[in-house]
Amino acid sequence: MFTFNDAVISQGGVLDTDTLPEKLRWIAEQTMSLCVQTRDKVNSSDILYPLGDLQIALVDNDQLNAFAHYNDGKEGIAIYSGLFRKIAFRLLITAIK
To answer: Half-sphere exposure of residue 2, counting CA atoms within 13 Å on the CB side?
Structure first.
């Protein structure tokens, strides 16, 4: 059975944010924090379908991508590190203008 962790590993493994430059680390940590906050808000809603213990991971992969995984009631979302690099690049370009 292909688990969420198997999917994360197959796409590059969990991102070690400690290895990122400071600004990129901040973006990654904010992204993770916002995902967790969103999951918690959805779970506390009376009208939205609860996400339960949805797993969230940051994947060490330079593609601008993400994926959702569902397997026998276990759900997860993964966000690729390419997203943080793209955001950082956009912020740099904006700062230069």
So the answer is: 7
Radius of gyration of the chain (CA): 15
**Mean pLDDT (whole number) for 24-45:** 91
pLDDT tens profile 46-64: 998 888 889 999 999 999 8
**Encoded tokens for 20:** 């990122």
Look at strands 74-80 and 66-71 and give their pairing: antiparallel
Q: Average model confidence (pLDDT) for the chain?
A: 88
How buried is residue 56: exposed, middle or buried, by Cβ count under 10 Å (0-12/13-18/19+)?
Answer: middle
